Amino acid sequence: MAERLPLVVANWKLNGDKVLLAEMIDALQAFESNEVETVVCPPFVYLNENTNGVKKGAQNIAEVESGAFTGEVSGRMLRDVGCQFVIIGHSERRAMYGETDAVVAKKVLATLHAGLVPIICVGESEQQREDEETIAVISKQIRAVLDDLPSYSDSLVFAYEPIWAIGTGKTATTEQAEEVHAEIRKVLASYNQELAQETRILYGGSVKPDNSKELFSSDNIDGGLIGGASLDVESFTTICKNAVA
Question: What is d(CA 6, CA 235) in angstroms, rounded to the nearest whole number?
Fold first, then answer.
């Protein structure tokens, strides 16, 4: 089995500008390592900027390829501007824009159809964790996607983002995060063993320079989906360095 290459993704959300993007690209080019894959996901309007080989991804995708859908952006359009990845089902999209498991599954299919790599977000609320429903909730979210796939692909990425740790400063302990990541891999294995071995699973709950190295040292944590810390060039590049084994 080939070793899973660590992946670190910057999710800028509704933040950033051309200046920050240029600074980030310069820093990632200077860092350049074959031991970690890095991706920057700025807002849509900056996706057409030249990133000089640094990989970029979108924060969302339309379920359809074209039509009367004002404000939507299709996978074909994302591919045309050089995108390679798409974040799908982030907790903010689920909570604020009503994206259901069924919608997430359709967006995953649209992403794969466009030849892009979906980064599929799953996670539980604080109440669900307190009610010991974490594994059941996450399993349901994963199965909603895999049950709709015509075949299993090694170009899937999953990101575990406990909702209670998004933008709150709270972080799951390394042990808590690793436990959930291991369970995610078990769910993948119930579909296909090769899928489970090859799929990268990222952690996305308030990852910072000072906790990333320990998180990334876990067997089933293959990198991070970084929010707030990705808006600081030094912090993000430090996290990328910490992902190198």
Answer: 17
Domain assignment present for 125: yes
The catalytic residue among 99, 161, 178, 181 is: 161
**pLDDT tens for each residue of 165-200:** 776 667 778 999 999 999 999 999 999 999 999 999
What's the CA gap between 201 and 181, in Å, rounded?
Answer: 7
pLDDT tens-digit profile of 66-77? 999 999 999 999
Is 1 contained in some domain?
no
* Cβ contact 183:175 at 8 Å: no
Between CA 32 and CA 36 the distance in angstroms is: 9
CATH of residue 125's domain is 3.20.20.70
Any catalytic annotation for residue 178? no
Name which of 238, 165, 241 is nearest 206 in CA terms: 165
Helices (H), 59-206: 75-80, 91-97, 101-113, 126-130, 134-146, 174-189, 193-198
* Backbone torsions φ then ψ of 84, nearest 5 degrees: -125, -20
Characterize the bridge pairing of strands 85-88 and 117-122.
Answer: parallel
First to last CA, the chain: 17
The active-site residue, picked from 37, 90, 92, 178, is: 90
| Residue 72 is among the residues annotated as catalytic for this protein | no
